[in-house]
Design goal:
heterodimer; A: about 425 residues; mainly alpha; three-stranded antiparallel β-sheet; 16 helices; about 5% strand; globular; B: about 475 residues; alpha+beta; Beta-lactamase; five-stranded antiparallel β-sheet; 18 helices
């Protein structure tokens, strides 16, 4: 029995080779940057980042069964954020490295929460008012940046509550949808969307809406109501376009950023120039002029990656997100309860949609909305909440693994009894 | 649960679809627009590189150096008239002219395409890196001649001219007036209301006027049976929706064949032809010739041409047939139209780059000719060739004739309102019918005087160009 379990774990393990390659990649990358000015911070990161990757990919699976490929991918992306930030603005990179560590811890916490809590009724009812209150806070004590009012400060720490509420949204809608209770999640979701609209945080609103609608479709398989929801969303989008001047402005910029290059279109045009400058293989790590792009460290980090590493690497990054979605969907399909399935799928969709919304905005496929690129963009709340999403996913994956082992054990027992 | 699992799979596939869209759209737009984004004059990366790299030379097809770098300063030809004639093609080092060679070939001129070993060698030798040398397809002496001839026949007028090889698409010359001296840009040049930085050959769109009758004819030949043999009546005042369409000098041509109507540029007949064709057929032919297409040529940025799609009533259709309505095309595109007729219906992609060589003399890249599209069947092109031959032999374009050469062409006088006042543009598009001298021209003169037409303003310039081309070795 023991052998069988080991064999299965081994079969699912994409191999230590992958994590070793990832660690070597970051070690040499930071070493390369260290050669530039012999800053001790680069040398420190050359050791610290691979160490965190080792913790995240090789050590964690000793605590509980985990999907190692998923761990490798997320850790690669987190470390990529630290690396690109160090190459453009080291001060951001130190903070991001700390957030990465915090994110790993938060991920473990989330994994344990999913493993331990079997009855979500009480937590969910507690979460609902707390989440709505949290989401309303920026409207009362927040500051406006780039037309959206979605931040507030705790001391010197900036907090974006919509990133935290993302998690409770998933828990709440998965709980009620798995129990076929329609109204509670609908009221909560509409409340969240309303508050996000008031904050003019349209990118996040789009993600919340998309994930909720998709999960509803999966849980109910009711095409008619999903269609109505889709139409309602489209109607709200048109209404938003007509009502809000800043939405109109964004759409106009998207249609032709070059017409107002010096002002409104500046950001998008700089991003496109950066991508084009990189060519297929990039200008090289730490080279180029990525800092000419406004908000290069958050919204436009994908343009920076393309400039430095090239379009082919950019496509590979896309492929990594696709792999995350693939692993996430596989986990969701293997889940034993409807709740866990919805939770895993929701976390996957949340990451996928967020990536699509921001990269699509940067390459001018859709109008730009200011959301972060999961795992990679600078920002504590964003990185930690993305890691928590992976935590929820991993939690479900570990439960699946436990259940699978239990099945095997019972089957073995059964056959032993049969032999007797 | 089973249903839910299946739907999870559907959702995952939707997400994969979205990501595929990202990859395909991103890849496509970088592939098609990447160089345009990169060479945008205000790309800060280029400005940074300009400080460190000695820009490469720009040469014409005969090896004449058009631009070089001496002691860190960009210098041009010694003769001022020669400098001015090619300034719009070349662009200036300050980026006032958009999409000139200086800006659009930044990748080569400023050494962005240098290989790793070249950069390494530059680093070792301690010498600053040198950009690549770019050789153009143009003949700079031809450019000087066009500018001189244009000013001689149309003193003080603005306008543009394009000469290309209709078999290969190579640009032989192109000018835009007014121009400026790149060696001596003053505050007055920058403030000039005549917009000397504007390349009228590729960036300005004009109503093509009667030169568009080439396309109306092409459409008629393809869509109306027996059009070549039928007689059409010109009453001198065709009434469409209570508006009269008149001919030049209020002429009444009586009964005409299409050939005669083309030769005399009869508006009545062409308005009638357009109405007979209908909007869809005429638009289809215009689009075959590249109207409404997004021009994405490899080394030339050309403003798109428009065949109007809105507000199409019978009167608009009738005026489209004679090249008015909201039709708009650049002199470059009209040159391509004439070239397509000359080249038996095949329109070549215009091109400006001959080859690129590294500072050490090895060839970085050479450009090949490419077919842009097939505009019309060869048989119809042959008919149009004979019509255009008539125009220069005994029609409106006789002043483009050069003894000893077979010249074909079409004149045009297009009306438009510019800043509230009516202006007339004079056009001549045409070519030499000779496989050894495969050249097409397009000449545009802005704001010609009353009583003048394309035949008296633009055609004489074309004649000088043909004369020069004949003398080429």
């Amino acid at each position: 029995m023991r052998n069988d379990q080991q064999e299965r774990t081994f079969r699912r393990d994409p191999g230590k080779l992958l994590s070793s390659a990832v660690m070597l990649f970051y070690f040499s990358a930071f070493l390369l940057l260290w050669l530039k000015d012999f800053a001790w911070q680069a040398a420190a990161l050359a050791v610290a980042v691979p160490a965190m990757i080792w913790l995240g990919v090789n050590f964690l699976p000793h605590l509980f069964p985990a999907d190692k490929l998923l761990l490798s991918l997320t850790n690669f992306l987190c470390a990529l954020g630290v690396l690109v930030l160090y190459a453009t603005n080291p001060a951001y990179a130190y903070q991001q490295a700390v957030y990465y560590g915090v994110g790993l811890v938060a991920m473990v916490v989330c994994i344990y929460l999913v493993r331990i809590i079997r009855h979500w009724r009480i937590p969910v009812y507690l979460l609902m008012p707390v989440s709505l209150a949290l989401l309303a806070l920026p409207l009362i004590i927040g500051r406006e940046t780039n037309g959206a009012k979605n931040w507030f400060y705790v001391g010197s720490l900036s907090v974006q509550p919509s990133e935290i509420v993302k998690l409770s949204l998933l828990l709440i809608i998965s709980h009620f949808m798995s129990r076929r209770k329609f109204l509670p999640w609908l009221i909560f979701a509409v409340g969240c969307l309303g508050l996000l609209m008031l904050q003019k945080d349209l990118g996040t609103a789009l993600m919340y809406y998309g994930v909720t609608l998709m999960l509803y479709y999966a849980s109910s398989s009711n095409l008619l109501l999903t269609g109505i929801g889709l139409a309602g969303g489209a109607g709200a989008a048109v209404l938003g376009y007509k009502m809000f001047a800043h939405v109109k402005r964004r759409v106009a910029i998207w249609q032709n950023p070059w017409s107002d290059y010096d002002n409104a279109g500046y950001q998008l045009v700089q991003g496109l120039m950066a991508i084009a400058s990189g060519g297929l293989f990039g200008v090289g790590l730490g080279l180029g002029s990525p800092r000419t792009i406004p908000v290069y460290h958050t919204d436009f980090i994908f343009a920076v990656i393309c400039e430095q590493f090239g379009v082919i690497f950019g496509l590979c990054v896309l492929l990594m997100y696709v792999a995350i979605i693939w692993r996430g969907a596989t986990t969701a399909m293997a889940a034993r309860t409807s709740f866990h399935g919805l939770l895993a799928m929701g976390a996957t969709l949340m990451i996928g949609l967020q990536t699509f919304v921001i990269i699509g905005g940067v390459i001018k496929l859709i109008p730009l909305t200011g959301v972060t690129m999961p795992f990679v963009s600078y920002g504590g709340t964003s990185l930690v909440s993305s890691m928590c999403l992976i935590g929820l996913l991993q939690g479900v994956a570990s439960l699946n693994e436990d259940d699978l082992n239990e099945d095997t054990r019972l089957a073995m027992l059964g056959s032993e009894e049969g032999m007797r | 649960m089973k249903q839910q699992r299946y739907l999870f799979k559907v959702l995952a596939l939707i997400m994969f679809g979205l990501f595929l869209l990202l990859a395909v759209y991103g890849g496509y737009s970088i592939f098609t627009y990447g160089n345009r984004w990169f060479s945008y004059s205000r790309n800060p990366r280029v400005r940074a590189q300009k400080e460190n790299v000695i820009a490469g030379d720009i040469l014409d097809r005969n090896g004449i150096v058009l631009a070089t770098t001496v002691d860190g300063k960009r210098t041009y030809q010694a003769d001022e008239a020669a400098r001015r004639a090619v300034v719009h093609l070349l662009g200036d080092s300050q980026g006032q002219v958009s999409n000139g060679v200086e800006a659009f070939q930044t990748r080569y001129l400023y050494g962005f395409e240098a290989s790793l070993s070249e950069r390494f060698n530059a680093l070792l030798s301690g010498q600053p890196q040198r950009g690549d040398n770019v050789t153009l397809t143009i003949d700079s002496q031809l450019c000087t001649l066009i500018a001189r001839s244009f000013a001689q026949h149309n003193p003080g007028k603005n306008g543009a001219a394009v000469v290309m090889n209709y078999k290969t698409g190579e640009l032989m010359g192109s000018i835009s007036l007014p121009n400026f001296d790149p060696q001596n840009i003053t505050a007055a040049t920058l403030a000039d209301a005549g917009q000397p930085f504007w390349n009228r050959a590729t960036q300005s769109v004009y109503p093509p006027g009667s030169s568009f009758k080439i396309i109306t004819t092409a459409s008629a030949l393809q869509n109306i049976p027996d059009i070549t043999t039928m007689d059409i009546l010109c009453t001198g005042g065709l009434s469409v929706m209570n508006q009269a369409i008149r001919d030049y000098g209020n002429a009444v041509h009586e009964k005409l064949t299409l050939r005669e109507a083309f030769k005399k540029s009869c508006n009545n007949v062409y308005a009638l032809t357009a109405i007979t064709l209908g909007d869809d057929a005429l638009r289809k032919t215009a689009e075959d010739f590249g109207f409404n297409d997004n021009f994405l040529f490899r080394d030339l940025v050309v403003e798109n041409s428009t065949y109007p799609t809105e507000n199409r009533n019978q009167f608009e259709l009738a005026t489209t047939g004679i090249g008015q309505s909201a039709l708009a095309a650049t002199p470059m595109h009209m040159c391509m139209v004439a070239a397509a007729i000359a080249n038996d219906g095949v329109m070549m992609e215009p091109r400006l780059l001959m080859n690129v060589q590294s500072a050490s003399g090895s060839t970085r890249t050479t450009y090949q000719s490419k077919v842009y599209r097939t505009a019309l069947p060869a048989a119809d092109a042959a008919t149009l060739q004979s019509y255009m031959r008539e125009v220069v032999k005994s029609g409106t374009g006789t002043r483009a004739a050069v003894p000893g050469l077979t010249i074909c062409g079409k004149t045009g006088s297009a009306e438009s309102s510019l800043a509230g006042s009516d202006v007339t543009y004079g056009w001549f598009v045409g070519y030499i019918e000779n496989p050894d001298l495969p050249y097409a021209v397009s000449i545009l003169v802005e704001s010609i005087e009353d009583g003048e037409g394309g035949g008296s303003t633009a055609a004489p310039v074309a004649a000088d160009v043909f004369e020069y081309l004949r003398a080429l070795p």
